[in-house]
Fold this sequence. Notes:
The complex is a heterodimer. By secondary structure, chain A is mainly alpha-helical. Chain A has helices spanning about 25-50, 55-65, 70-100, 105-125, 130-160, 160-180, 215-235, 235-245, 250-255, 260-280, 295-305, 310-335, 340-360; strands at about 10, 15-20, 210, 215, 365. Chain A folds into two domains: about 1-50 and about 365-375, no CATH class; about 55-340, ABC transporter involved in vitamin B12 uptake, BtuC (Orthogonal Bundle). Chain A contains 13 helices and five strands. In chain A, helix 1 (about 25-50) runs antiparallel to helix 13 (about 340-360), helix 4 packs parallel to helix 6 and helix 8 runs antiparallel to helix 9 (about 250-255). The longest helix of chain A has 30 residues, at about 130-160. In chain A, about 50% of the residues are buried. Chain B is of the alpha/beta class. Chain B folds into two domains: about 5-235, Rossmann fold (3-Layer(aba) Sandwich); about 250-505, P-loop containing nucleotide triphosphate hydrolases (Rossmann fold). Chain B is about 35% helix and about 25% strand. In chain B, strands 13, 16, 19, 20, 21, 22 and 23 form a seven-stranded mixed beta sheet that branches. The longest helix of chain B has 16 residues, at about 170-185. The chains are: A mainly alpha, B alpha/beta. At the A-B interface, helix 8 and helix 9 of A face helix 2, helix 10, helix 11 and strand 18 of B. Bound molecules: adenosine-5'-triphosphate and magnesium ion. Adenosine-5'-triphosphate binds near residues 44, 46 and 401 of chain B.
Amino acid sequence: MHNLYDNSIAGAAMIKLEKRPQPSQFWSLAAPIVAVMLTMIFGAALFAALGKPPIEALGKIFWEPLFGEFNFFYLPQLLIKGAPLVAIALGLSLGFKAGVWNIGAEGQYIIGALCGAGVALALYPMEARWLIFPAMLIAGAFGGFAWAMIPGLLRVKFGTNEILVSLMLVYVAEQLLASMALGLMKNPDGFGFPGSRNLSQYSSASSWIDQSNGMHWGVVIALIGVIFAYTLFAKHILGFQIKLAGQAPRAAAFSGVSPARLVLFCLGTSGALAGLAGLTEVAGPAGLVSIDFNVGYGFTAIIVAFLGRLHPVGILFAGALMALTYIGGDVAQSSLGLPGAAIQVFQGMLLFFLLGVDVLTNYRVSMKQGSVA
Amino acid sequence: MTEPLMKLRGLTKAYPGVIANSDVSFNISKGEVHALLGENGAGKSTLVKTIYGLVKPDSGTMTLDGIPFNPAEPRAARTAGITMVFQHFSLFEALDVAENVALGMENPPPMRDLAQRITDVSKTYGLPLDPTRIVGDLSAGERQRVEIIRCLLQDPKILIMDEPTSVLTPQEVEVLFETLRKLKAEGTAILYISHKLEEIRALCDQATVLRLGKVVGSCTPSETSAREMAELMVGGTLHVPNREAGVVGKTLMQIKGLSAQSPADFGTSLKNVTLDIRAGDVIGIGGVAGNGQDELLGALSGEIKVGHGQISFLGQDIGHLPPDARRALGICAAPEERMGHAAAPDMSLTENAALTARKLKGLTKNGFIDWGKTRTFAKEVIERFDVRTPGPGSAARSLSGGNLQKFVIGREILQNPQILIVNQPTWGVDASAAAVIRQALLDLAANGAGVIVISQDLDEIMEISDLFAALNVGRLSKPRPAKGLTIDEIGLMLGGAHDMEVSHVD
Ligand SMILES: Nc1ncnc2c1ncn2[C@@H]1O[C@H](COP(=O)(O)OP(=O)(O)OP(=O)(O)O)[C@@H](O)[C@H]1O
Ligand SMILES: [Mg+2]
């Protein structure tokens, strides 16, 4: 159903939204910036209401980690937190553009980590890094891929909803993680403590490149991913088909896009990227398979994908920004005593304002003289 | 002379790169059927949308009954007594007639009263319609009646109709005209847009002609010939397609016992369709919309997969091939619905060129799109088919209906396919552009392609086809040479089962 009389949404009595004939170039770039500013303003108000100095709190969140006295400590953290967010969000953005909603990246991230870690633990203490690390990468990517294929195949074969299935599989993955950490993968030399052997200290399996600077293979994968995704959408027919399928499914079918193949491609790729992110995390920054290994990157990446306008370069910036609010949030929490929930509200505001301002990309606000008959 | 019902003065509306209406002034009187004529993109739809409150003019004034009138939104226009029937129906297929009518009204009465009123209005105006039927089961003409009745229930002073007859059968058109004449006799003014000049001559009292957004003349249609009107619109002479005696060559495509389930909920399945397409053939397929046209196009384009041996091309079985693989073989198609099916509304014309032309035009290499080449191709389509638009970067949805149609058809023709299947190729296209499209189809056939033209416009089919076949509830009649077929014979082929009486008993 389309065009039921009006292309416009009547807002309050005087303000009206008119659909733009073409999406506004200006607003699609300006929207995230305006959203960040609005978040700062309302965030400051929130902090003030909590009785904390607002400007100082913003300073702790946005300034301190980048330029403060201890930035040598925080900057590597930015890479560590940003890399999985960017890698996962890139994968999700493919599907989101095509109308394929993978909400379960968190689960694919866990399974990728388990598969990759499984390879390393099985081969421990072999010394052949040239064999072990690549095998881990493959296993990690495959684990995430396979976990994402479950909702993919179910949707293609039986028309199930991939949102529900992928989300529920997160909980299954979490159970699996717990059982692995406490059972099969438990460190035999660990004096009964839960958790696997430390992979980041197992030189054949570690994903660190330069630990003191926060550089690990996950960062490399995220950056390569950005370049890949950018080329895909700017130049490749597959990127074009993804966009087409999201915007006009019938035209996509007419053009020759197979919806089933597209669903599997989008889910598979995002699963593989999430799996890689999980693997590089477990073999690096996290170090070992433990019960609380996953910290929600898979969910936060959804925000990152939208904040970055589903555009690869946008996602790079959005991932960095999100990582910054995490780290800065910690700083504010410890130095000003801001409650952790306030930081989460702050991050939530970011998405809220982005979606709000986003309306301006496709609609124009016009003031009516109010002479409605 | 009495004071006109509505006065338009100096209406101007500019879009980026085009002036859709420029200083448009004219009057509409009570009880007058007023035609709005003009080429594609002349600004007709924009003008009526202004009157209906969908478009806000940059300058200019309107008065209704002598009172200044500037509706902020359609609701305001409806309250003031102006209603509009769009060419694209806005109906919910799964709901029944009364429910659909209620959904479009400001203050719908209770359902039982409404059903009664629908029946009353439909009797008064000779528009047979049962309020309890599900819209999905209705023909295009009946769906339009739902929209019209919705308008009539609001006692309109002015009824606007934007290309209302392009989806109707000749019989349905007659019924519609009877209704409109009744309305006119009661004093309702009707603003009528159509590219079918003979209809305008039969129905309208006055005509205002637009060219490039400006009023370039007016005439009394009953005293002006269709050709004169067309030339007034174009500002030049009209080209009539001519057919060179083509040589019919070898069989290109064979359709044998084609049966396919319709993917749509209310669609018509194809039953045992058989047809040979030879090089040089133009085959016209007539019939009332909803008798399997969409399905036939889908089965041939590859959107609907069919069983083994049902469609073959140069001896190769292709029923299982997807659309792009068929295009690679030289089989192109243009579906009826241009927005969202033949073209992606939010994408640029360049991107829309890549949508179908990438194989035959070699627009991709190893899967990488050559955007420069694609843009050049889009430009070529725009120039060859006189698509009125600022350029290939414009979004498809910013084009006027007819101009997008020209682009979509041009995109397929310029790929030089071996087989081209088109559904309603000149739907909403003005007379001169329609002539260009028909000529291009004929040229394609003259160069050895096989062309299938699915159309409800019998005049169009008779003008260009060598063979005529009728599609009826998913079955295709045996094709017969078009030359020499009489109207009666055609009527028999169309099954005769599709006039009004039968279609609403069911
Ligand atoms: N929303 C829009 N944005 C940009 N340009 C537009 C828009 N709507 C219409 N136009 C342009 O305004 C001009 C007039 O369009 P309009 O739809 O009024 O033409 P029309 O006379 O109804 O043509 P047709 O017979 O093809 O339906 C065209 O050049 C069209 O491209
Ligand atoms: Mg129009």
